[in-house]
Design goal:
225 residues; four-stranded antiparallel beta sheet
Length: 225
């Protein structure tokens, strides 16, 4: 693995251009620094290309052209300026390759962990919103039933469903809003199917009682559990 390949594994043309002061839009467009450009004509991602003057290349090409350096000097500048963990002292090629593979594996593992963390955080935010809505819906159903005949209330699968679900939803909201990271992680790993099942059935029950003037939600004798 050459020093050039290692540098390009760590940084893109867009990243080095931004580091050295080029203003890049969210869509990856910028005014080309290599000609008198007043309207963004350069597209940057892993590589760069100017639709106006035709200049193109990778991260190392960009730095070499920007600062008038050789490819090797540009690679060294990127390593030093961006503090890349690349050994430039030479040494055994096999050892350099082993270290590179190790760093690449660590980078992949880190990306995997970040993906899992983001999925977990997104689930917590979504389920907090869903369960808060369920809690409000349960209160609405209880209000709708408060003046009904006791026998109708007793025989209603809708009312049974919301009563069954209420303590679960309250407990899950406590964990999501006030619990520790460990408690939320345990909820995500062990009970997320139950959270989604009961929240869904409460939603069906509420639609049945609040959208139709009848005593059940179309669930028949199905229970929340």
């Amino acid at each position: 693995m050459s020093i050039f390949e290692e540098v390009k594994e760590y940084v893109t043309a867009r990243q080095v251009a931004g580091y050295y002061g080029l203003k890049v839009s969210s869509k990856g467009m910028a005014c080309c620094p290599f000609h008198d450009d007043h309207h963004p004509s350069m597209k940057l991602d892993s590589r760069y290309y100017c639709f106006a003057c035709g200049v193109k290349g990778d991260a190392i090409n960009y730095v070499a052209q920007m600062f008038g350096l050789s490819q090797y000097e540009a690679a060294l500048k990127i390593i030093e300026d961006l503090s890349l963990p690349i050994d430039i002292s030479g040494g055994n090629k096999a050892e350099r390759n082993r270290k590179f593979r190790m760093r690449k594996k660590e980078k992949q593992e880190k990306a995997k962990i970040e993906h899992i963390r983001e999925r977990f955080n997104r689930w917590c935010r979504q389920k907090t919103d869903d369960l808060q809505k369920c809690s409000k819906d349960i209160a609405a159903v209880k209000e709708a039933f408060k003046d009904r005949d006791p026998e109708e209330v007793f025989n209603s699968p809708v009312y049974s469903c919301v009563l069954y679900a209420e303590p679960y939803i309250g407990n899950w909201l406590d964990i999501l809003c006030l619990g520790t990271d460990e408690e939320r992680q345990q909820l995500f790993m062990k009970e997320r199917e139950g959270v989604e099942r009961i929240a869904g059935k409460v939603g069906n029950a509420v639609r049945g009682i609040l959208e139709a003037d009848r005593g059940d939600s179309g669930l028949g004798n199905e229970q929340c559990g």
